[in-house]
Amino acid sequence: MPKEELQKHALAFLRQHITAVLATSSLSGESQSAVLYYDVDDDFNFYFISSKDSQKIKNLMVNKRASIVIGFGKMVSTVQGAGEVEIIEDVDFNLFAKIIERIQLYEADQLPLSQVNKTGFVTIKVKPRWLTWLNLDKMTYPETYGKDFQQLL
Description:
Layout: H1 3-16, E1 19-25, E2 31-40, E3 46-51, H2 55-62, E4 65-70, E5 77-88, H3 93-103, H4 113-119, E6 121-135, E7 150-151
Antiparallel strand pairs: 1-2, 1-4, 2-3, 3-6, 4-5, 5-6, 6-7
C-alpha cells in the first residue's frame, strides 16, 4: 500500500481513539507514563492538555523527548512513536473544546479538571520523529492488516 494511503488510514484509526500513553523521563532517567486524552493533526502532531505542575511536565522541562502509544489493552492494532516535545504555556481553548467533544464528556469529573485547575493548564505538542502502526485486526481494519510494523513517518 502506498505510504500516503497508509497514513490516511492511520489518521482515521487515531481519530477513532481518544486516549494515548505519553511516556517521559527525568534527567536522571526515571520514567513516567500517563494515559491522556489527545488530539492529532493531519501532520501527525499530537496534542495533550496537562496540569502545569504534573510530573510529566517537570520531566519534559528537562528532557524534551517523549514516546506515545495509541491502541492498548485488548486492542490488536497500535500506533507507536517518539519525538520532540514543545510545551505551550497558553492552552488553545479550541483544542480543549475539541478534546472535550471527542471524549463526549458526560460528567464534570470525567476529566481530572479539579487537579489540573489548581495550577493551570499547558498544552503538550509531540512532533514524532518516527511513528509506526501494527495492525493485527483483520476484521476492523482489513485494508491495512499486516503482521509487521508499518512505518508512517
